[in-house]
């Protein structure tokens, strides 16, 4: 299988990069190669922690070269469903640490990994993990030391991640997918962005309507995913009021329209 061969090649690269200064990582990579040869599919990798742990170990060193290799391999594992959902919390903790590194390539890899998580079966299913993942994007967006490239990528990742969360809400609530699913939501976000002031004015009246009636009934009838989506909407509107950042204001407004379309 091509994926298994690529993964073994990555482990060899990791071993070669770590061989002088980080013998524990080198030995772990060589052990993982032997373990990988006994496995035959991504699902078997997901049930074996040795492969994932060596890449997390490489990231823990927090050098640019090892972190880039580790994050790239994490992306491949997640994309191929070769990571158990129980590992998400540990992966997010690793990504949070990497968001604090000053290297641009590491920051961009971190954001790429966040988006891949939201596109995979690892998409956060509870508020803690969801807040952790979105918080990484916001920290990079707000960091004065972030480059323009990192800020732009962080804003785009945040917007896409929230769109994916609400795609999940659509599925969980059995709502019509044609209007918002399969990329429709993203295109709506772009159209709203073109006229922020008009959207803010419209949102004020909608938010008043939302607060004055029907909210408690909606909460009672929503699934768990729907309740998480509603909490996310409330948090985003509060956040927008506090820091007055256009990207978050527009996103919160978009989500208000989303909720009211189905209320």
Q: What report would you give on this structure?
A:
- This protein is mainly alpha-helical.
- The protein has a domain of 143 residues.
- 78% of the residues lie in helices and 0% in strands.
- It contains 14 helices and no strands.
- Helix 6 runs antiparallel to helix 7.
- The longest helix has 25 residues.
- It is globular.
- It starts with a helix and ends with a helix.
Average pLDDT taken over every residue: 77
Tell me the number of helical segments per DSSP (H or I, 4 or more residues long): 14
The helix fraction, in percent, is over 70%
Large-scale geometry: globular
What's the alpha carbon Rg, rounded to whole Å? 20 Å
Structural class: mainly alpha
What is the terminal separation in angstroms?
A: 47 Å
Write the element-wise H/E pattern from the N-terminal end onward: HHHHHHHHHHHHHH
Strand content: under 5%
Largest sheet: none
- The count of β-strands is 0
Show unreliable segments: 178-214, 242-247, 256-263
In short:
This protein is mostly helical. It has 14 helices and no strands.
Features:
78% helix; 14 helices; 263 residues; mainly alpha; disordered C terminus
């Amino acid at each position: 299988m091509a994926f298994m061969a690529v993964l073994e090649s990555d482990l060899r690269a990791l071993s070669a990069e770590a061989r002088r200064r980080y013998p524990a990582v080198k030995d772990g990579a060589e052990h993982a190669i032997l373990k990988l040869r006994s496995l035959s599919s991504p699902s078997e990798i997901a049930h074996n922690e040795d492969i994932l742990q060596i890449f997390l170990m490489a990231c823990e060193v927090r050098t640019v070269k090892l972190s880039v290799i580790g994050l790239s391999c994490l992306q491949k594992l997640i994309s191929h469903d070769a990571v158990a959902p129980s590992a998400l919390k540990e992966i997010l903790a690793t990504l949070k640490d990497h968001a604090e590194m000053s290297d641009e390539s590491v920051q961009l890899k971190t954001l790429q990994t966040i988006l891949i998580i939201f596109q995979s079966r690892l998409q956060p299913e509870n508020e803690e993990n969801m807040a952790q993942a979105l918080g990484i994007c916001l920290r990079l967006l707000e960091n004065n030391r972030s480059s323009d490239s990192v800020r732009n990528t962080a804003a785009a990742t945040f917007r896409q991640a929230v769109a994916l969360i609400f795609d999940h809400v659509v599925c969980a609530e059995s709502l019509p997918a044609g209007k918002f699913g399969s990329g429709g939501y993203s295109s709506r976000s772009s159209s709203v962005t073109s006229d922020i002031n008009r959207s803010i004015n419209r949102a004020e009246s909608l938010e008043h309507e939302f607060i004055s009636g029907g909210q408690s009934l909606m909460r009672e009838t929503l699934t768990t995913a729907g309740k998480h989506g509603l909490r996310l909407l409330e948090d985003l509107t509060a956040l927008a009021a506090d820091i007055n950042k256009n990207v978050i204001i527009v996103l919160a407004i978009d989500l208000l329209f989303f909720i009211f379309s189905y209320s």
